[in-house]
Amino acid sequence: MKVLSLKQPFAELILQGKKTIELRKWNTHFRGEFLIHASKTPDKCAMEKFGFGELPVGQIVGKAYLVDVKKYLSEDDFLADKDKHLASSDWGTYGFLLSNVSRVKGIPCKGALRFWEFKGKI
Fold first, then answer.
1. So what CATH class is 2-117?
2. pLDDT digits over 84-100, tens only?
3. What is the pTM of this model?
């Protein structure tokens, strides 16, 4: 199954339903269900900004469905979705629109860039 690695607290914000758009600097033609991997190294500034102490890292923590990808062509368009992606345009101008998010029991594993394949059992 495909997996996407995200830094904490962004993986947790998706699992809590507070972040429904994941920003990336690259596009994908992939659509469908994938696993959410919490990267080994959290974003310490974002952890503080969103009020988190410790969160699981270095493991698969959930799954979601990639419905579509939105290309942000203007600053106004980007800012209109600020409450959905919770980030600055430094993270990218491609918005991965997510649905059907659920938490899974943590599965320790190493992450990778872009979408990658997990061969283990969920």
1. mainly beta
2. 999 888 889 999 999 99
3. 0.93
